[in-house]
UniProtKB/TrEMBL annotation:
InterPro entries: DapB_C, DapB_N, DapB_N_CS, DHDPR_bac, NAD(P)-bd_dom_sf. This is 4-hydroxy-tetrahydrodipicolinate reductase. Keywords: Amino-acid biosynthesis, Cytoplasm, Diaminopimelate biosynthesis, Lysine biosynthesis, Membrane, NAD, NADP, Oxidoreductase, Transmembrane, Transmembrane helix. Pathway: Amino-acid biosynthesis; L-lysine biosynthesis via DAP pathway; (S)-tetrahydrodipicolinate from L-aspartate: step 4/4. Its EC number is 1.17.1.8. It comes from Agromyces agglutinans. NADP(+) binds at R37. It comes from the Bacteria. Homotetramer. The chain crosses the membrane at residues 99-124. It is found in: Cytoplasm.
Length: 250
C-alpha cells in the first residue's frame, strides 16, 4: 500500500529533503506540497502530513491535522511540555483523531545520544547540556536538548534534580527539567549536542555532531511510515526504535 504524504513547509530545506525522499521511495507518494501561501485544507485526505515549518505556524498546522483526522509528523522545533499537553487535550477531545508524532530530531544518532545520556544520568549529580546550531535556527534551546533533559530527569527518578549551582545567573543557561542548557547559534556549523556529566574525579561527555542533512533521511522515512499506524500523541523518534524510553509523557 502506498502512503500519500502532504508536506507542509515544502519550500524549505527540510521540506525539499522530505519531498525528494518521498518521490524516491516505492511505498510513498506526494499528496500535496504546501508553502506559506497554501490553505491547510490542501492536506485533508492525506494518509499522513509532515510539518516542517517554524514555531509560529506549527500550532495551527497540528490543530488542523487533528481536526481533519490526518496523522501528522511534527518536525518543527519550539514545542514546550505545556504546548504538547494542550495538544494532548485537544486530541482526546476530538473523536477519531489520528496520531500526532513530535520528532525533536530525525537523526538516529542523535536519538541514541539522548538515550545514552538518560542511561548515564542516575550515576552523576552534575549534568549540563551545550547545544550548538546554525545561526538561522530561530528557537533555543533546541527541541533535542529539551527532550534529552526531560529523559535524564525521568531516568533520575527519586534521585531528584541534578546539582545546578548559581542557576539564577543568566550565564548559567536555561533550566530545562532541572538541567542547565546552553545554546550556541553560530555560522559555519549545522548541529551539535554535548551532554557533560560530572562525578567524583571524572567527567563523561556524550557528543553527537550533525555533519550533513543526510543524517535525517532514515528518521524521516521511519516517521512517515510509522505514523499512519500509530495512535495518540507521541514525543520522540525513540518510541519507534524500541529503546525503552518514556514516550514523551512529561
Amino acid at each position: 500500500m502506498t502512503i500519500r504524504v502532504a508536506v507542509v513547509g515544502a519550500t524549505g530545506k527540510m521540506g525539499q529533503l522530505a519531498l525528494r525522499l518521498i518521490e524516491e521511495a516505492d511505498d510513498l507518494e506526494p499528496f500535496a506540497a504546501l508553502d506559506s501561501r497554501s490553505s491547510l485544507d490542501e492536506l485533508d485526505g492525506a494518509d499522513v502530513a509532515i510539518d516542517l515549518t517554524h514555531p509560529g505556524a506549527s500550532g495551527e498546522i497540528v490543530a488542523h491535522a487533528i481536526a481533519a483526522r490526518v496523522p501528522v509528523v511534527v518536525g518543527t522545533s519550539g514545542w514546550s511540555v505545556d504546548r504538547i499537553a494542550d495538544i494532548r487535550r485537544r486530541h482526546r477531545e476530538t473523536d477519531g483523531a489520528r496520531a500526532v508524532l513530535f520528532v525533536p530530531n530525525f537523526s538516529i544518532g542523535s536519538v541514541l545520544g539522548s538515550a545514552f545520556a538518560a542511561m548515564a544520568a542516575p550515576f552523576f549529580e552534575s549534568i549540563e547540556i551545550v547545544e550548538a546550531h546554525h545561526a538561522g535556527k530561530v528557537d533555543s534551546p533546541s527541541g533535542t536538548a529539551v527532550r534529552t533533559a526531560e529523559l535524564m530527569a525521568d531516568a533520575r527518578g527519586t534521585d531528584g534534580p541534578v546539582a545546578a549551582p548559581h542557576a539564577d545567573q543568566r550565564a548559567r543557561g536555561q533550566l530545562v527539567a532541572g538541567v542547565p542548557v546552553h545554546s550556541l547559534r553560530l555560522s559555519g556549523l549545522l548541529a551539535e549536542q554535548r551532554v557533560v556529566l560530572g562525578g567524583d574525579g571524572e567527567t563523561l561527555s556524550i557528543v553527537h555532531t550533525t555533519i550533513s542533512p543526510s543524517s535525517y533521511e532514515a528518521g524521516i522515512l521511519l516517521a512517515l511510515r510509522s505514523a499512519p499506524g500509530r495512535e495518540g500523541v507521541t514525543v520522540g523518534l525513540d518510541a519507534l526504535l524500541d529503546l525503552g524510553l518514556p514516550a514523551g509523557e512529561r
